[in-house]
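Table 4 source record.
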Amino acid sequence: MPSVSCPVNLIHCLLVLILAGEPVSSDLAAQSITETKIRLMADALRARDSGDLELARRNLLKLSEMAPDDPAVKRLLKDVRADLADEKVRLNSEPKIGSPAASTNLQRAAPAAADSFEPLPPLPDPAAELAAMEAEIEAAAAEEETRQMGLIAAARQEAYDAEQLADAGRFDAAIARLDSAIWSMPENPLTAPVIAELNAQRDDVVKAQVLAKQVAKIERAPVTVAVSTTSERDPIDDLWAGARADYNSGSLERSRDALREVLALDPSNQAARRLVNQIDDELRANPEAWRQQTRRSLISEVEQAWRRPGTAAPPSKEAGYGAAARNPLFEKLDAIEIPTVSFNSVELQRVVSTLSDLSREFDNGGGARKGVNIIVIDPMDRRPTVSLTLRELSLKRVLDFITDSIGYQYEVQTDAIVMRPGGETSTLDTEFFPITRSTVIRMTGIGGGLASGGATAVVNDPFSPAPVATVNAPGGGSEAEALKQFLQQAGVDFLQQPGSNLAYDGSAMIVTQTTRNIERIRNILNRYNDVRQVEIEAKFMEIQEGALEELGVQWGIAHGINGDP
C-alpha cells in the first residue's frame, strides 16, 4: 500500500484545528480530554506512517468518539479504512507461497500480466495537499476568532447593562447579567482579560449590594437615645463589679462579703449565689490559703492602726467658695491671650466685633464652643471711639483697659459678656458663701461680739489667730456690717451700687452684688480659707518602774513615791 509521509508542521496544524473546535476550559477534566486527543492523534499518525493501519484505525475511532464533528478526524479515518480495504483485497487475491497452484498460476499469469500491465495512478502532490490543509486551518481559525470577538462584544454589552441595573438598585439582575456574560465565553488568552474585568465588576456590584442593605437597615432602625446619670446607677452592679475584681485578685473573703451584700439586696441573683458557693468550695479545699488571707487581713489592720497621721492637704483655690457655680467664661477670659490689638478712633461696636473674632481665633481650650460672645448695650446711642494699642495681654485685661478708657463697664454673664455705659443699673446676682467662724474673726477681728457701746473688737478666744484687720462696726456692732465694711475697704462697692447688700446668719454670707464684685468676694474668701496645718504626733508607752534604774532615772522623785521626800 502506498503511504504518504506527513510533515511535522501538518501534525501541528491538525492539532491546532482539533483544539479550535472545542472551547478551552480551565477545568482539570477538560485539560485531560485535550491531552488525550493530542495523544490519540499523534499515535494514529505514527501508526499510519509505520504501516500499522489497524492501530491507526483504533486510535482514530477513539478520537472520533471524543470529537465526532471534527472534519480532519473523519477524513483521516476514511483514508485509513480505504487503505485497510485495499490491503485486504490484495492479500485475498494473492496465492499462498509454496503451493503448486500458486506456482502454476504464477507461470500462467506471468505472460498475461506482462501483456496486461497498467501503470499505477500518480500519487497526490504533498505540497498541494499541505497548502490545502493550511488554508482550511486558517479559515477555521479566522472563523473561531470572529466567533470569540462576537462573544467579547456581547459580554461588554452585558457588562454595560449590568452597570445600569446596579445604578438603578437592581443588584440581583446586574449580578445575573454578569454571570451570564462570564459563562458564555471560553477561557483562552484572548478572553482572559475580559473575564477578569467582568469578575471585578461583579465583585463591585456585590459590595455595593451589601452596603446598600446596611444603609437601609440603619435607616429603618429606630433612633434610641439612652441617658445615663450617676443617680440611676444600680448599687447591685457596683457590688457585683467589686466582688468580681476581688475574686480575680485573690481576695476571696472580701469577694464573698460583697456577694452576700448583693444577695441581701437581690435574693434571686443566681450568679452571685453560684459564685459564693464556688468561693466556699475553694476555701474548704485550700485551708492554708484561707489562713494566709486572714493573716494578711489582720496585718493590714495592724499597719492601719500604727500608721502615722498625715498632714491634711490645704483646700485648693479651685475648690474654694462657690467654685462649683463658677462661671466658665471667667476662665476663658483669663486663658485667651491676644498677641496684639491696635485701635485708632474705632467705634466701640467694631472693637467688640474684632475682639469676638480674636477670641475665637486664639481660644485654645478643648471645649466645643470657641470664643466668647460680647454684646454692647447702649440705649443712648453714644457710640464712643477707642484708641489704644495693647500687646500680649489676656482678653480680660484688654476688656478692662477698653472699658476704663471710655467710661464703660462689663458684666460676665453665663453665656455672654455685656458692656454698658458706667453708672447704669447692672444686673445683680445673689450668692451664698459658707464661711467659718475663724474666717469671720480674721476678717473683722470680732471674737465673741463687741463691748457694749464700744467700737473696739474684743477677742474672747485666747487661741484664735491675731486679727488681720480691726473694723469699727457702725450702729450696734453688727457682724454683717463689719463684714460689709471689710469688703468695702477691700474693693467691693456696696455704697455706689444700688440694690447691693450683704447678710450674715452665723454660718454663711448672702451677698447681692454684680457679677464682678461677687467674683472679687469669692477670691477674697479663698485667700482667707487657707488653713495652716500642723502635725502632732504622740506615742504612749507602758514600762515598769525600775526598768531603767541602771540609767539613774527615778520616776517618782517629784511625787513623793517610794519613801522619797
